[in-house]
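Today's session is about reading a structure prediction critically. Students often jump straight to the picture, but the first step is always the sequence itself: look for stretches that repeat, for charged clusters, for runs of hydrophobic residues. Only then move on to the predicted structure, which in these notes is written as discrete structure tokens rather than atom positions. Here is the chain we will use throughout the hour.
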Amino acid sequence: MNESDAIFSVSELSQALKNAVEKTFPNVRVRGELSGITRAASGHIYLSLKDADSVINAIIWRSTPCGFKLEEGLEIIAGGKLTTYPARSNYQLIISDMEIAGAGAILKMLEERKQKLAAEGLFDSARKKRPPEFPRVIGIVTSPTGAALQDILNKLRDRLPVRVVLYPAQVQGAAAAAEVAAGIKYFNNLDADATQRPDVIIVARGGGALEDLLPFSEEIVVRAVAASGIPIISGVGHEPDWMLIDFAADVRAPTPTGAAEIVVPTKASLTDELAKMGAAMKSNFTARINLAAQRLDDMRIKSPAQMIADHRARLADAAHLMAVNWKNYISQIARQVAHLGQMLESMSYKNVLRRGFAIVRRGQIIISSKDDFATPATIEFADGTAAV
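Below is the predicted structure for this chain, in token form.
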């Protein structure tokens, strides 16, 4: 290769370059933003990793697992090997594993997805359904080998007997989101009278890193939860962990154990509740008995003589009251008449005549001007009239 006069064919040089690249970079990890994502009919994914200055082509074979949704602009750390494609004289990264670059990028992606799904109404409180108080069958979607399932079963043993139906699903990795969504759809598609159809569904997983919980924030899971006709309780992670499934679920439990506590009451709590209900019923029944006894006492039959005496007493009271009211009424009317007479007297023109005035009339007409005066006429004084 180093001989200055060596002449190679294009294929020889291309193969030499391929060998050199693959030998020099057999295992690399690259950080960059996803761009130009294309899924071929074969299932392989073609994309680019870029930063501010450069771009590297990359391929994800269809058999390579991916634990999150690939989106334009998402920053990831990809591991794999470099190779060349001699037919086009370019190089590319064959990705064997990948992760989102840092918690900040994950949280940013989740917040954007949350806003998108919330705008579609998938998190509206009006969509929430109340789980039954006493479910007959509980459906659980989780890993059959995980600690979450055992925690739920152990907690249910301390509570009321209930039938549990498990839909086994991966809770981590590339296939987890699809399997969890499939479990939710499976339970919903059962006939209403099927013995396997649950009254409530628990989707559960134990705690883990933020990256491990990402399947429970995938759109396929959130949409399956929002579309479920069966109430769903989310028991994913621990108390501080919040995945998008929690916003779509009808009830969010802090842990898988907490989901079991929510869905089925304890025997002790039911015993206490029954005792309180019994005490309330006893108190109510006693009050009703006492009221009925009082009514019976009021309804006891009296003798005819006693009944006549009671009526006579009531009539006497009514007559006395009528007499008092009538006397008061007459006195009030008399006072009003006297008052009106006094007002009439004070307003009479006779009082004016007594002070030395007189009224001149011609017939019934009062003369108020000398130009209207003519005889015959009469003059009225306080003590009588005189003809003119």
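Discussion point for the tutorial: The first helix runs from residue 10 to 24.
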